[in-house]
Amino acid sequence: MISVVRSDAEIESIFARAKELGNVFDAHWCLQMWSGVLAQNLGVILRQHEGGRVEGAMGLLIAPALDAELESREIFWFGGNLALLRMAESWSVDIGAKRLVLGCPENDRYPALARVRRRDGYKLIEHMYVKEL
């Protein structure tokens, strides 16, 4: 089952589960940031769960693009399956977004994820680099 996260307790459960799965998130910062995002309707967290257990989640922000179109941008995604992606696409359409922008981590899973993205109609538009400062 997939649902929209609405409360701080739900946000906390998302990042607690992410930590259990080996993801590195600052839970306190994530709670503060996502509480604000949700309160101002600037994004959404979608939670995939089974029997009360979080199986995956995706956080999306609403963003204006340089071509004056609205986009939704994936900020985090862990666990879950393609049903979570389909819900993100549906939510994006519902808010009037013309595009959904997804990341694809540069790791051993990259080739398989890239194939799935292309198969689903996503196009590679840029690579991003990060430098710790």
Describe this entry's structure for a reader:
The chain has 133 residues and is an alpha+beta fold. It has a single domain, classed as Aminopeptidase. It is 37% helix and 27% strand. It contains 4 helices and 5 strands. Strands 1-2-3-4-5 form a 5-stranded mixed beta sheet, sandwiched between helices. Strand 2 (43-50) and strand 3 (53-64) form a beta hairpin.
Quick synopsis:
This protein is α+β, with helices and mostly antiparallel strands and 133 residues long.
In what range is the share of β-strand residues?
25-35%
Global shape: globular
Order of helices and strands: EHHEEEHEH
CATH architecture: 3-Layer(aba) Sandwich
The profile of the biggest β sheet is: 5 strands, mixed
Q: What's the total number of strands?
A: 5
In CATH terms, what is the fold-level topology?
Answer: Aminopeptidase
What's the Cα radius of gyration?
Answer: 15 Å
Biggest sheet, strands in spatial order? 1-2-3-4-5
* CATH-defined superfamily: Gcn5-related N-acetyltransferase (GNAT)
Distance between the termini: 40 Å
Low-confidence stretches: none
Contiguous helical run count: 4
- CATH class value: Alpha Beta
Tell me the structural class.
alpha+beta
Number of domains as seen in the coordinates: 1
In which range does the helix fraction lie?
A: 25-40%
- Mean pLDDT across all residues, rounded? 92
